[in-house]
Amino acid sequence: MEKLIITAAICGAEVTKANNPAVPYTVEEIAREARSAYDAGASVIHLHVRDDDGTPTQSRERFQECISAILRECPDAIVQPSTGGAVGMSDMERLQSTEVEPAPEFATLDCGTLNFGGDEIFVNSDNTIFNFAKVMKERGIKPELEVFDKGMIDIALKADRKGLLVHPLHFDFVLGVQMTATVRDLVFMAGSIPPGSTWTVAGIGRSEFDMAAAAIVMGGHVRVGFEDNLYLEKGVLAGSNGELVGKAVKLARLLGRDIASPAEARRILHL
Ligand code: KMH
Ligand code: ZN
Question: Which residue's alpha carbon is at the smallest distance from atom 9 of ligand 1?
Fold first, then answer.
């Protein structure tokens, strides 16, 4: 089995300091949280950025600043900007994270529209997805295909049939938002992608470590972090993203799976 790639989703666009005071907003806080995750064993930093007051933004300048600050702390980390941004942002706004220099090696590509809780709908039409895929291909950015249910795998494969994706594909199964996060769901998702693809699972909320444990034994990869879950265990807020990554590392060690360095992650992901 390949070594385990751990992605840390350190910030997100939805969680706030009211949910957990360690959620980072400023450039310095984002660099601090990336460093804590990297030191604990994360090779990929999934990045959203905020204004200093916590408002989510997709500003190219803010991404540029945060990426530089992260790379000063963790020079070989794989920084994966979000093109999802926050619910309600326009496509143009969201694509700014792909416009940093040098072009990012990896970025998310959300593969469908979904219910995001309450009245929130995260909109990704087929044309949005195809256009984002085209832009990423032109810029040499590998998409992490964010799929929140099985239908989104099928939409990603439509983009593939149009020649917009480069193989091997890499998927992130985000379970616990629109689709439930059970081992049965995860096995179904992992069995529904083209042979030779790689995958990560992001279990949302309390499912984060159930899904991590399943992925570790199935040969997938793992995403943890404040974007997805704020708690180290029931009722105990995590003090940093590093604590969440540390728990994933501990699970992997218990189950006999080694952790990939950034260089090993680049090889496994064909970056
Ligand atoms: N914040 C969500 C609306 C991504 O990073 O690509 C979208 C999201 C997915 O988090
Ligand atoms: Zn995200």
Answer: 84
